[in-house]
Each structure stands twice: as structure tokens, then as C-alpha cells.
Design a protein that fits this description.
- It is found in: Peroxisome.
- GO terms for molecular function: delta(3)-delta(2)-enoyl-CoA isomerase activity.
- This is Putative enoyl-CoA hydratase/isomerase.
- Keywords: Isomerase, Peroxisome.
- By secondary structure, the chain is α/β, with parallel strands linked by helices.
- It has a domain of 182 residues: 2-enoyl-CoA Hydratase, Chain A, domain 1.
- The protein has 10 helices and 9 strands.
- Strands 1-2-3-4-6-9 form a 6-stranded mixed beta sheet, sandwiched between helices.
- Helix 1 packs parallel to helix 3 and helix 3 runs antiparallel to helix 9.
- The longest helix has 34 residues.
- The relative contact order is 0.13.
- The structure holds coenzyme A (COA).
- The site of coenzyme A has 15 residues, from helix 2 and strand 5.
Length: 265
């Protein structure tokens, strides 16, 4: 099968010593997340939630890339169907991220785009390599933020910096992500996965109930608002996906040209 065909094998899931490791593994397409990949990730989250021996989740990319976010081909298909409802695997993953009681550790290298950034807002300890390049290009794609990021980003870094990242949608460095409070530490690329794995295993040895309760206490104060924001975002996101601005932006990406939004109001 071609490497770029969307199959569940593009995500590796491993359970080891209390840690569920989810690895994005579709390097030829910069680990862009397809519907099939979301299904595998959702199943991993569900299994990690149910299994008492799993105490921590670890999310990482592969081959020097975290993820280019949602697969734009799938976005174009969703633009035709407008499916951003409860049954959508993307939506199911977002719900798992918000509701996950167990700590989530993330290791980021290279591109982290769209959901590749916003999922980090639901992780607990995040390590990035010097090569990490973050971007939330939702507006550039005729869309709006998702994963409750329109609520969480201003909360984490203050409105002006959140507005800069969301409205301009430009790339930013690991150092900037650190200064904005999105990640915990910037490390040399060679040691990022090692560090995140070490931290995940250290967490897995801690008293599990104390870990879960502590995470819950830190997050519960704003969980309801995050969930409400996510619902509102999904409504707008679905409108954006079926609209002409997103169609122009995504066609332009695949045609490797600048988009032209001059005719839109
Ligand atoms: N969906 C589908 N395909 C994608 C993709 C995505 N989100 N991101 C990258 N790809 C594909 C490219 O089309 C290209 O395919 P090709 O080799 O068949 O032409 C391949 O992955 C490599 O991407 P390329 O752009 O050449 O790599 P790069 O190193 O120059 O840039 C990114 C990497 C991630 C910065 C850039 O690909 C990008 O901006 N991607 C779009 C990200 C995006 O908008 N995601 C949606 C967020 S909501």
C-alpha cells in the first residue's frame, strides 16, 4: 500500500509499563491526520481510559515531525459533507482530550500545525525540540480555532499574544511557544523523545489516584467553559469548512499558489 494512503498503520499505539504511547507515523505527508488515523487515536484514548494499568499517555510524532494537523484532503471532503458532528472521529478525539483524566505528555519536533498545536493545550507536560515550528493557520484556511483553543489560548498567554497567533496564523518557534506558556521546555532535538518518555514513565510510577485528582483539580475550574467553547467552535468550523473561503484556501495549498480572498465579503 502507498505510504500516503490513509490507513490506521499511520498511527502506532504501544502499551508499556503503564504508558500508552501514541505515535503519528505518516511522515511522507508530515503526519497529517486522516479520519482513519483519528479512529486509531480515539480507540487508543478509550483503551487507555478503561485500562487500570495505563496511567499516562504519551503523544509524539516521527521522523522529525509532530503533525501537520488535519489532513487537508479530508477537510475538503468534510467540506462537502459538513460532518463535524458527534460521530466525526475528530470530534470524538477532541472530547477525549478535554475529558482525559490521566496525564498526557507530548514530545514535539518539527512542524506542529493546527490540531498539532491545539491538542497541546490539553496535554500536561510538553517537551519541544529546537526544530519545532508551531502554527495555527485556521484563519488562513477560512476556518476558526478548534479544541477550545479560542478560550484556552487567551487564558494561557493573554489576549494580545493569542490574537497574534490566531489572527495572523504565522509560524512560531519553540522558544516563542515556551514564552507563551504552551510548552514546558525546549531541548535539543535528539533528546526530546527520550526526555518525554522518561517523564511519562516517572509519572506512571506515581500514585495513580493522586495524579488523576491533581490533574482534575487544576483543570476542572475551566473544563465546562472549555467544553462550551468547543461546541461553539464546531458550529463555526463546520460553516467554514463548507464555505468558499476554505475551498479557495485548500485548493491554493494543493496547487502550490497564494490564495486570493479579494472577492469575499
Ligand atoms: N494535509 C494533507 N497533506 C499535507 C498536509 C496536510 N495537512 N500537510 C502536508 N501535506 C503534504 C503536502 O501536500 C506534501 O505532499 P506531496 O509531497 O504529495 O506534495 C507533503 O505532505 C509534504 O509537505 P510539504 O508542504 O512539502 O512539506 P514542508 O516541510 O515544506 O512543510 C508543513 C510542512 C507542515 C509546514 C506544510 O506542509 C503545511 O503547512 N501543511 C499544511 C498544514 C495545514 O494547513 N494543516 C491544517 C491545519 S488546520
Amino acid at each position: 500500500m502507498a505510504d500516503d494512503a490513509p490507513t490506521p498503520e499511520h498511527v502506532h499505539v504501544e502499551f508499556d509499563a503503564g504508558v500508552c504511547t501514541i505515535t503519528f507515523a505518516r511522515p511522507r505527508k508530515k503526519n497529517a491526520l486522516t479520519v482513519a488515523m483519528y479512529r486509531t487515536i480515539v480507540a487508543a484514548f478509550a483503551e487507555a481510559r478503561e485500562r487500570k494499568d495505563v496511567r499516562v499517555l504519551l503523544i509524539q510524532g516521527s521522523e522529525g515531525c509532530f503533525t501537520a494537523g488535519n489532513d487537508l484532503v479530508d477537510f475538503m471532503k468534510a467540506g462537502q459533507t459538513g460532518n463535524m458532528g458527534e460521530t466525526s472521529p475528530v470530534v470524538q478525539l477532541l472530547k477525549h482530550l478535554v475529558a482525559c483524566e490521566k496525564p498526557i505528555v507530548a514530545a514535539v519536533q518539527g512542524p506542529a500545525v493546527g490540531l498539532g498545536v491545539t491538542m497541546l493545550l490539553h496535554c500536561d507536560l510538553i517537551y519541544a525540540g529546537e526544530s519545532a515550528r508551531f502554527q495555527m493557520p485556521f484563519v488562513n484556511l477560512g476556518l476558526c480555532p478548534e479544541a477550545a483553543s479560542s478560550f484556552l489560548l487567551p487564558r494561557v498567554m493573554g489576549y494580545p499574544r493569542a490574537a497574534e497567533l490566531i489572527l495572523l496564523g504565522e509560524r512560531f518557534s519553540a522558544e516563542h511557544a515556551l514564552s507563551c506558556g504552551i510548552i514546558n521546555q525546549v531541548l535539543a532535538d535528539e533528546v526530546v523523545i527520550e526526555k518525554a518518555t522518561e517523564v511519562a514513565h516517572a509519572l506512571a510510577k506515581k500514585p495513580p489516584r493522586a495524579l488523576r485528582v491533581s490533574k482534575q483539580l487544576m483543570r476542572d475550574g475551566y473544563r465546562k467553559q472549555a467544553e462550551e467553547t468547543m461546541e461553539a467552535e464546531l458550529v463555526e468550523f463546520a460553516k467554514g469548512l463548507t464555505g468558499p473561503e476554505a475551498a479557495e484556501a485548500m485548493q491554493a495549498f494543493f496547487q502550490k499558489r497564494e490564495p486570493d480572498f479579494s472577492k469575499f465579503e
